[in-house]
Amino acid sequence: MVTPKKYLGQHFLRDENIAKKIADIPMQSGYEGDILEIGPGMGVLTKYMIDAFPKLNLKVCEIDGESVEYLTKAYPKLTIIHHDFLKLDLTSYFEKEVYVIGNFPYNISSQIVFQIIDQRHLVPAAAGMFQKEMAERIAAKHGGKDYGILSVLTQSFYDVEYLFTVHEHVFSPPPRVKSGVIKLTRKENLGDFDPGFLKTIVKTSFNQRRKTMRNSLSAFIKNSEMKSNSVFDKRPEQLSVLEFQQLSNMML
Hints:
The chain has 2 domains: 6-186, Vaccinia Virus protein VP39 (Rossmann fold, 3-Layer(aba) Sandwich), CATH 3.40.50.150; 195-251, Helicase, Ruva Protein, domain 3. Helices cover 35% and strands 19% of the residues. It is built from 11 helices and 9 strands.
């Protein structure tokens, strides 16, 4: 057994049906490439990944030494990357594209998403369990309170699908919140925008989300003609992902 560690945000899934349901997500979309599981813990999801993809290149990334020791004994043929995923260069372990999957630690789940986005050239798809509130934020559409930085930046590069909700009692220890499983599928035909500048515009806007875009983005407005554009009358949650991309192009 592995002792769950609060500082690592570990909540081990105990429900075998849910574990199998998550493991089946890549197969349901016809994926046949490499797989990377993040934070396998005691391998409740891992064993179904091994069964579902016996001929594929499955690796797991685990930062917890106790979990690594447990997995090494339980699955001696499994390739274990004892590393922090947030500092992992996927090109060091994979020669081609890799599907990222896992029961993601809640305390770093948004950082995991940004790491996936930063290495999107190698990640055609991802699926995982998040705190329900986080999953809803990633999948949120414009116009609501859940829509924010994570929504816009994720949906600029991936199609997001909220799959199902998971209740607290199926974990050890049980978290204080429900969980949500989502799937990301990379967009192959992106719009024409600068990713770095888009990130700057989106973060600047939502960091002052009660202000209109005219006020929050005043440092980026080049002239009075641009300033008079009606898009600047809006608040950031009112702009769609496409409108943010168009706005960043206008201001670049």
